[in-house]
Amino acid sequence: MPQHGTFHWNELTSRDVERDKRFYQDTIGWTFVSMPMDRGDTYWCAIHDGKPVAGIFPLTSPEFDGVPEGWMPYLAVDDVDARVAKAVKAGAQLMRPIFDVPDVGRIAILKQPGGAGIGWMTPVGM
């Protein structure tokens, strides 16, 4: 069970998903399971020792032009809506509206006051 305030998930944002899947498969031994996304793309869940350990998010839509490739960490939080309200008051910027991913949780993408990106999520069952 995830605990509030701890890192819960890591996601690679990628413009070349197949390249990145090959890299992590060849170097780390990850396998991948596809998960269709609402916008028509495929999200890739990395599996290690039978457990999901990370994801690869494709940056194929024009809305992601200018978004750099890189790793996005996600913190587990007890109430993403209430915590985001506090974060915005403290100087963070909500990058897109808070959204739900079925069977995963409620997610916010923030830019903290110094400019670094961070995901916060209330995982299902937390």
Automatic annotation (TrEMBL):
Gene3D superfamilies to which the protein is assigned, alphabetical: 2,3-Dihydroxybiphenyl 1,2-Dioxygenase, domain 1
Pfam families reported for this sequence: Glyoxalase
PROSITE patterns xrefs: VOC
Domain of life: Bacteria
Name by which UniProt lists this protein: Glyoxalase
